[in-house]
Amino acid sequence: MPKVKHIILLGPPGAGKGTFSSQIKKIIPDLIHVSTGDIFRKNIKESTSLGIKAKEYMDKGELVPDEITNSMIKNRLEELDKHYWILDGYPRNIGQTKYLSGIANIDLVLLLSVDTEIIKKRILGRFTCLNCDKIYNKYTLLPKKNINENKWICDDCGKDIEFQQRTDDTEKTLNKRLDVYKTNVEPIIDFYKDKKLLKEINAEDTLAYTNKEIKEILKF
Ligand code: ADP
Ligand code: ZN
User: Is ligand 1 within 6 A of the CB of residue 92?
Assistant: First the structure.
């Protein structure tokens, strides 16, 4: 069994946190992927009051207020009591970081670093299978079988997929999200560096990491 039970993935939008989480999950299948962005998007789709509130901020590329995000994460982590989990997209500022340290133990923080130009290409081309959440990219990672120019068959689940961007994956919102990331990340990095939990990895091509390399990163 792995020594690390609770992992945080830090990194700019488009660093590939979701993709890297899937790679880690193949090695530790019991690990539960907790993405605040995914939870918000699910709530928006279901038009819950949480979703309606969050959408306003997300469409502008701003952070959803801490009171909302913190209590949502607290509820989710309580449900996951005793499970292994990986946090993707949380914490995103120092307030959330301190809040989290009061409700959970963290074993490892992975900082995914990637060049901004690469990020832009990734985000503006990214789309996901609505059925199984596999992440693709219009420019770099298309499903193998295509039906027509904008339609494919998902490699993983076999369902039809169309190129459909997230509503916040536009150039304007992306620039704002990158700014928000840059202004907030340094104190988070310092916080986890002090606690000797931070490990920086090159995320230019995480798909090239072998299972052995990922295990080393996770200190198996
Ligand atoms: P990305 O990392 O590509 O920006 P996410 O899915 O993680 O995408 O986040 C999308 C949006 O959801 C953010 O721009 C923000 O509005 C909101 N969000 C996600 N996580 C948080 C968080 N921890 N705190 C506040 N807002 C968040
Ligand atoms: Zn699929």
Answer: yes
Going by alpha carbons, the residue nearest to atom 12 of ligand 1 is 37
**What average pLDDT is seen over the chain?**
93
Residue 87, pLDDT above cutoff 70: yes
Provide the residue range defining the domain that includes 212.
6-115+173-217
Atom number in ligand 1 closest to CA 60: 16
Residue 210, token pair as written in the block: 């072998």
Order across the sheet with 151-153: list the strands.
145-148, 151-153, 160-162
Ligand 1 pocket test, candidate residues 63, 86, 126, most atoms within 8 A of CB = 63
CATH number at residue 106: 3.40.50.300
> Is the separation of the CB atoms in 100 and 109 below 8 Å?
no
Query: Does residue 161 contact residue 143 with C-beta atoms inside 8 Å?
Result: yes
Average pLDDT estimate for 108-124: 93
Domain count, the chain: 1
- pLDDT tens-place string over residues 182-216: 999 999 999 999 999 999 999 998 889 999 999 99
- What pLDDT is recorded for position 220? 54
